[in-house]
Amino acid sequence: MNASKRISKRGTRGVTLRTAGLSLRLDVRGAVVGLLLLVVALAMSVVLIGTGDFPLAPADVLRTLAGNGTVAQDFIVNELRLPRILVGLLVGAALGMAGAIFQSISRNPLGSPDVIGLGQGSAAGALTVIVLLQGDPTEVAIGALGGGLLTGLAVYTLAWRRGVHGYRLVLVGIGTSAMLTAVNGYLLTRADLPDATRAVVWIAGSLNGRDWAQVWPLACVCAVLLPGVLGQARNLRMLEMGDDSAYALGVRVERTRLVLMFAAVVLTAAATAAAGPVAFVALVAPQLARRLTRSSGPDLLPAAWMGAALLVTADWAAQRAFGADQLPVGVLTGMLGGAYLLWLLVTERRAGRI
To answer: For all residues of the chain together, what is the average pLDDT?
Structure first.
C-alpha cells in the first residue's frame, strides 16, 4: 500500500484498505491467527530439522539455513532434512486449503477430500502403477495425480443434477470412496510380496525419504493454484450463503464452483502424489482454523497454515513419541483424525445437522 491508502474501520472485526482502483477487506482476527499459525508451522519446522540421529540446536539450524553452517551441518540440514520439511509444509498447506474449499462448497464440515474419496482415488491410481505396471516413484506419483483427478471428475459428474448440492456431493463421495477402497483391496491381493510391501508403505502416507524431486513439482502446483484460489475467496464466501443469494450478488455460481473444485482436486492429488494419502488433515485443519478465527467464512489462508502446522507437528511426534519406533505420519494423523471425526459426528448430530 502506498501513502494514498485510506483505512476505515467497520465494526470491531476488520478494516478496509483502499488505494486507487483497489479495495481490500481485511479481517484483523483472521489475519493475526493466520500469522500466528504460520509462525508455529515455521518454528516446528526448525525444531524438526534439528531432530534426528545428529541433533542440532535451533540456532545452528537457522545459521545453517542462512549459509553459515559447517560442511557437515549444511549436508544434514539442506540435503537430508530440509526437503522432507518442505514437502510436509506444502502437503499440509495444500490439504488444508483444499479441505476449506470443499467444506465451503458443500456447506458441510464432513465435505473434505478424505471423506469424498479423493485420497482413495489417488491411492487407486498409485496402486495401479505399482501392482500392474511396476512403475518407478515418478510414475507412481503421476498415477496418484491421475487417479485423484479422475475421481474428482467422477464425483462431480455423479453429483450433478441441475447443479451440485452439498449433501449430494458428500453422499456421492462417500459411495465413491467405499468402491475405491474395495478396488484398492483387490489390487493388493493381486500384488506379489515386494510390490505389496511397497504399496502398503505408500498407502500409509509418509514423509520418509522425500527429497527435492517431490518438493519442486508440489511447490509449482501450490505457487500457481494458491493465489488463484485466494482470488476467488469473495465468491466462495458468497457461495456459502446459498446459490440464490450468490446469484443475486452477481456470482456465476456453477462456473465458480467448478473452478474451485478443480483447484481443490488438483491440490489434493498433488499432495497425495508427494506424500501418499495423509488422512484427516484436510478434514481437521479448516475446522480448527475456523474455531480460532471465529469467522463464518472459508478462512483459506488460516486453514492452509493450520494444515502445515498440524502436519509438521504430527511428523515430529511420529518420530519422537514412540521411542525407537517411528510411525509414518499418515498413521498418526489417521489415529488423531479418527477421534476428531467421532467427536464431529456427535456434535453435528446433537445440533440436528445430520
So the answer is: 85
